[in-house]
Write a structure and sequence with these properties.
Length: 406
């Protein structure tokens, strides 16, 4: 609804930048604002408006503004870490506040140091987190010449290590709908772009490995191998990997391989396929997946495509402004709630031991550029069209992998 300002900032803010700063200064509202303010303003303008208000308000309101600034510095230091100009403005604010309330200025100076310390410790934890129990011993392959050289359990572990790192590197500002849908995504949302690109590469790699195998039995064994890996990924709550493997097996070039799937159907792993299809179904706005994610114990790697869809729905279905011209903070609150959920999953690393050679092999294989036309041609070569047969409804239906929005 309409935001009414309790500390007088509304009277000094341009209408489209007004906010309910009395509520914003609180714990929940502050986070919501700090996660979404870039959709309608920038950090420097927020800092300027806060200082204008601070200089003219009474002591209780000044305390609220100072508490908001402290939360900004301590809990969202990445805003300052990546914007030296904003950090400079913050220090200018501290000097201004010192003229009014020296204790508040000291508190804000300490907040920057704490924010910097927390930010650095989080970076260290991403690389070497501490766990209360040892990680499972890796199953190190004797050689890595093919997918079959790596145990499905260990392959799933390393795929999860890679994807967890990509997922946890995504910054909150990369998820704002006014940045990641632009053609400049590489600049505004680099980690999100890396994560999505990896998804598409793995999906294409899965389909390519299947169609390039001329032997019918070996081809079926490849699909079974991927199903085993997907099952282990499910056990690890790596839902992103389950979706990307499912996507690769559902691409048209693989979907049409009737003889291959007839063999797979006879194996116990086919039950995993059915589970994957149910989990990745878009029915009910991915209701099966959402239920599974909510019941999963962290750590986990969510499927980022659902978050993209949710953010797009919020962006397209809610006006940026209310009828009275004020900023629609209900829309920003919805966006912030999704980002907070993502951050919750990002806080939990996996207790897995990496074998660098395995990670490097997976990355090298999936980084190859695959031509969809050649993949389709290879599919037709190994199993030519049978014009006299009807489509088998029991076989997978093709589904496209995630595509970046331009």
């Amino acid at each position: 609804g309409q935001y009414k300002c309790g500390c007088g900032i509304e009277r000094r803010m341009h209408p489209e930048n007004r906010g309910k700063f009395r509520e914003i200064a609180g714990k929940g509202g502050g986070d919501q604002f700090l996660l979404s303010y870039r959709t309608f303003t920038n950090g420097k303008e927020v800092m300027t408006k806060l200082m204008d208000a601070f200089e003219q308000e009474d002591k209780p309101s000044r305390i609220k503004i100072a508490l908001f600034l402290r939360r900004w510095a301590e809990q969202h230091f990445h805003d300052f870490e990546n914007d030296q100009e904003l950090l400079f403005e913050y220090h200018k604010c501290v000097e201004v506040i010192k003229n009014f309330e020296n204790n508040l200025a000291s508190m804000l100076a300490r907040a920057v140091d704490k924010g910097r310390t927390v930010s650095r410790s989080q970076g260290l934890n991403n690389n070497s987190p501490m766990f209360g129990s040892p990680s499972p011993k890796p199953i190190v392959p004797k050689q890595m010449l093919s997918l079959f050289d790596i145990d499905p359990i260990e392959f799933a572990r390393h795929l999860t290590i890679i994807e967890s790192d990509y997922f946890r590197a995504i910054a909150s500002k990369e998820l704002l709908t006014n940045t990641w849908t632009k053609s400049t995504m590489g600049d505004s949302s680099p980690h999100l772009l890396t994560f999505i690109t990896h998804f598409n590469q793995i999906s294409c790699w899965v389909s390519y490995l299947v169609v390039k195998e001329a032997s019918l039995k070996k081809r079926a064994n490849l699909i079974i191998r991927f199903l085993k890996i997907a099952k282990e990924c499910m056990n690890l709550n790596n839902f992103n990997a389950v979706f990307e493997i499912t996507s690769g097996l559902q691409q048209a070039a693989v979907h049409r391989l009737r003889k291959t799937w007839e063999i797979v159907k006879k194996e116990k792993e086919h039950a995993t396929l059915e589970e994957m299809l149910e989990l990745s179904s878009g029915a009910g706005s991915f209701s099966a997946y959402r239920t599974k994610l909510r019941s999963a114990d962290p750590p986990c790697v969510p499927y980022v495509g659902v978050y993209q869809s949710d953010l797009t729905f919020i962006g397209d279905g809610n006006n940026d402004k209310l009828d009275n011209g004020y900023i629609n903070f209900f829309k920003r609150r919805l966006v912030a709630e999704i980002i907070k959920e993502i951050q919750t999953y990002q806080m939990n690393p996996y207790n897995l031991q990496e074998v660098p050679s395995i990670s490097e092999w997976i990355k090298s294989q999936s980084s190859i550029l695959f031509d969809e036309n050649k993949t389709w041609e290879a599919s037709l070569c190994i199993e030519p069209r049978d014009t006299g047969s009807k489509p088998d409804k029991g076989i997978l239906s093709a589904r496209k992998s995630i595509k970046l929005k331009k």
